[in-house]
């Protein structure tokens, strides 16, 4: 079934994915992005070792529902047998459509353990991990990589080919180096180079903030699909805009009413999974992203920074909306 999902999305040129975003791509946000047109979504990165140690927080991150299917689970780590064990114990019998191996995270607390993008400096270990995962996985396996460690060590094409030869079914490329983190500009030429050497599907990630960006990256790289990360933060409508643009249909930016309605739904979904105070705190970054760029957004964000209940959030938003509607009359 999972293989068919991948095949159908790729065959229809409809691989428009929500990226795995630490602290962002939880179940509510993934569900919202599917509602808005993402054809497939990825979980936050989850530690394979933490799963093997039965860490409750990590196990809870595996929560998934049919409303977000197809969803891919992303795992990170540095020990091949730990990956294999986590997959056998938690993933093979799950509803996830596929497994993605994180070899791109640039965060120091990850790379210092030879995890994430540090694996791009140890091709042999990276290959061992892919082979171990493939030996037990009942689902397709992808690998998410960066351009390389730094500007003097750009090895994405050769590394991607090695991952393919080790058994990876798909390669996802964010064409920044580990040292860049999210600064500078994505070098889409790197994606094109990976696509040139790999026969498995290649997915383009990095600096996709508009339907025009989506078209450009596919045209310039020949990639088989796209993955959107920061472009979706506060703007899940982007997925639907890309779908409309591809179909030659008009699309518009969301109105204040639509944004606030989305915030209310998102907040209710988060509150349903945890206590209200924790949910509102977790939503604060989303509130800032949703309201970024609106008239007088600095003021509304200041007010939202101290709220602790759903009702407080909605009172502020409704007050703002009332003022905006009266100002435009």
Taking all Cα atoms into account, the compactness measure Rg is: 20 Å
Residues in helix, %? 40-55%
Name the structural class: alpha/beta
Low-pLDDT parts are: none
Q: Sheet with the most strands? A: 8 strands, parallel, barrel
Fold and architecture overview:
The protein has 329 residues and is an alpha/beta fold. It folds into two domains: 2-246, Aldolase class I (TIM Barrel); 256-327, Non-ribosomal Peptide Synthetase Peptidyl Carrier Protein, Chain A, CATH 1.10.1200. It has helices spanning 2-11, 27-35, 48-52, 56-60, 80-91, 108-111, 123-136, 156-166, 188-197, 211-221, 237-246, 256-271, 276-291, 297-304, 310-327, and strands at 16-18, 40-47, 71-76, 98-103, 141-148, 170-177, 202-205, 225-228. It has an eight-stranded parallel barrel with strand order 1-2-3-4-5-6-7-8, surrounded by six helices. Helix 5 links the parallel strand 3 (71-76) and strand 4. It is globular and about 60 Å long. The mean pLDDT is 95.
Topology:
Blueprint: H1 2-11, E1 16-18, H2 27-35, E2 40-47, H3 48-52, H4 56-60, E3 71-76, H5 80-91, E4 98-103, H6 108-111, H7 123-136, E5 141-148, H8 156-166, E6 170-177, H9 188-197, E7 202-205, H10 211-221, E8 225-228, H11 237-246, H12 256-271, H13 276-291, H14 297-304, H15 310-327
Helix pairs in contact: 5-7, 7-8, 8-9, 10-11, 12-13, 12-15, 13-14
